[in-house]
Amino acid sequence: MMPYDPDRHARRSIRLRDYDYAQLGAHFVTICTYQRECLLGDVVNGEIVLNGAGEIVRHTLEELPQRFPGIEVEMHVIMPNHLHGIILVGAQFIAPIPQTDTVGISGKSGVMNHAPTLGKVVRAFKAISTRRIRTGSNSTFAWQRNYYEHVLRDEAERHCIRQYITNNPMQWEIDRENPHRR
Question: Are 36 and 144 in contact (CB under 8 A)?
Fold first, then answer.
């Protein structure tokens, strides 16, 4: 076995240098199935038809805000072998300290809670959806390692990504993620 060499084995980070991924912001996220296998459904006449695994992915994605208060899945599309979504993270809130807990705390009215990072949300999504799919219909289901994300810096960029997500099923025939593209 070859010893770890950081110059040879380090992976290029997809993260922006000096960007706080827990701050309030919108992120365009793409997550692919392992080896880009088409395991989540089919595109028929420009519309996605999810199978059982795809429905599990949809349900798991849509329930993320209950698991992580302070995040929002603004919109998403699940394709046969990947998904795209806009995820808002970084909201903060003050949780009140119950009356019985305020004894001995001078001048504090609550505890600051921070929303999870995007990485924590994606990790949880992948783990939960994988477990559910493997328990159900596909015991070997897996997501590809890592994911693509892009910080949406302004409303114009966000609008373009919304259009891309909306139109993705209609573009499936020419999509580079489609193993049978024309």
Answer: yes
CA–CA separation, 81 and 69 (whole Å)? 28
Q: Residue written as tokens 């992976």?
A: 11
**pLDDT beyond 70 at 72:** yes
Domain CATH code at residue 150: 3.30.70.1290
- What's the pTM? 0.78
Q: Is there a domain that residue 114 lies in? A: yes
List strands edge to edge, sheet with 72-78. Answer: 72-78, 82-89, 25-32, 148-152
Burial class (CB in 10 A: 0-12, 13-18, 19+), 163: exposed
